[in-house]
Amino acid sequence: MRLPRRRHHPLRCPIPAASAVSLLSTAVAILLLALALLSYLAPPPFLDHPSVSGHRLRHSDPSPVRKPKISRDAAVRRDATTGESFRVPNGGGSSKNGLWGSKLSKYYVGCSNASIKFPAAEAVTRRDRYLMIGTSGGLNQQRTGITDAVVAARILNATLVVPKLDQRSFWKDASNFGDIFDVNWFISFLSKDVKIIKELPKKGGKPFRGPYTMRVPRKCTPRCYQNRVLPVLLKKHVVQLTKFDYRLANKLETDLQKLRCRVNYHALKFTHPIQDMGDKLIRRMKEKGKHFIALHLRYEPDMLAFSGCYYGGGEKERKELGAIRKRWKTLHISNPDKARRQGRCPLTPEEVGLMLRALGYGSDVHIYVASGEIYGGDESLAPLKALFPNFHSKETLASKEELEPFSLFSSRMAALDFIVCDGSDAFVANNNGNMARMLTGRRRYFGHKRTLRPNAKKLYSLFLNRANMTWEQFSLKVYSYQRGFLGEPKEVRPGRGEFHENPSACICETTKAMRGKHSGSLSQTNGDDQHRKSNRGHSISEPTYNHTDEEPDWSDMDYGEYTPLSKSLSNSTDMDYNPFTRQEDSELEDFLSD
After folding, report:
1. Domain-by-domain residue ranges, the chain?
2. Does the predicted model carry a pTM greater than 0.85?
3. Over the stretch 152-193, which tens digit does the pLDDT of each residue have?
4. Could you count the other beta carbons within 10 Å of the beta carbon of residue 486?
5. CB burial readout 197-219, b (16+ within 10 A) else e
6. Which GO terms describe its molecular function (predicted)?
7. Do residues 388 and 464 lie in contact, with contact meaning Cβ atoms separated by under 8 Å?
8. CB neighbourhood size of 530 (10 A)
9. For domain 272-299+346-505, which CATH number applies: 3.30.420, 1.10.8, 2.30.30, 3.40.50?
10. CB-hemisphere CA count at 13 Å for 13?
């Protein structure tokens, strides 16, 4: 008999009924609890009041930082996506916090006297050995060539003929040596080191035949000169070295390095008209305020084009700078973003202004700008002028009549900027070109005057993200990144970098420094009379003798400073001309390789 199938019924549990009112109350309670928790965890809202920004942030730098006070009239940059405020204060610092000089400068002094082991020129100069030099590039590049030419003549025990300036290259400046520098002072000051004459003498009543022309490798060592040039000089008696820029090794024995300093910092004086006009510009800047900043902006079209940098100007910028870039046939295609990340691009005028304000320089500070044609013109300069309204140049400080003797000559105009930058209370070099190098070394030699070089590699990312931070956070980071870029003594390890930028063999520690380096007040040392005094103290370093060739980097170029954009686009056929050689090389090859 078939049994009936047992059916399994699910257990039925009674569910209590919940009213709609109780469910709604529970949901509201949960929502209020969540809102309360979020309010507790969220940061306090940014208040539009200067006192809010005064709190001190924790920072990895243990040293105290004097931060500028935030004023009620501060400019505000508001990011549309984050809503955060980026406040730029109007206030600045004072001389007490090191804006205008180093407290350690009094413990160091320029020292370039020859040692007793360095015989006088009359004892070592050989008859019938004459060295001629053809310089290359702009004013400051030629200055390096002149300095090294004197040392090369000393190495060869030769008589140096006053160097020929580059007159028919891209810069098209017809000035002679005597138009820029005091040639009589140059000859007399160096008379104990190297015999120098204005022109070749006559031999048997007749002038010498044309000199034997040759070119030495870049960074040629003393042994290189003795092996390559001396045999020719002994046979031909007159040798002319062409394209003479960076043709001498960076590292030499101490007496030769000190000779470099005697040439660069004492023998090379500008002519009286140039020096007098430069001094007049400095006096006019001093009349406007107790201190002033000189800024070598380096934001010319040539500079930006050569470096391959891009600043967000769209297709217009790419076409304009690309057209200039075509002048360098062998220049490789660059990655603009990579160049900026690696710090190989100058800061924009606005970025320079923000850096200076973050370091504590107030909007009332007067700025002298040394530069050629600024890419983007007034539009590019507008943010900088908003941050520093007291904005000057040689054209605004002097009349056209006063500048007329100089205005048609790029080297003479560059010399005026050089003098004002050298006489400034703080010098800002926006890139590591020839003028920046020469002035940085000179300011170290004459008392470590405040010299600022942007740490572009680190500042680039900071500028990109500035909308996401407060002004205090931004300024603290700028202070941190700029350590080691302020022109302090021993900031650069002895022997590192170009000697013209870091003349460590010519900087001595004073006796006071031996007793205590970390106390004292601001002090500066200047003047050519310092060279004639006995060198008391100890040299920071004596660079080792180096027999390897070293190539300068892309910043060795002068980039057509003080040259209008239109001119830079029209003179491409003449830019490689040298008075002693044919136009066989491109400008890039001349400046960067053999």
Report:
1. 121-267, 272-299+346-505
2. no
3. 999 999 999 999 998 766 667 889 999 999 999 999 999 999
4. 18
5. eeeeeeeeeeeeeebebbbbebb
6. glycosyltransferase activity
7. no
8. 18
9. 3.40.50
10. 2
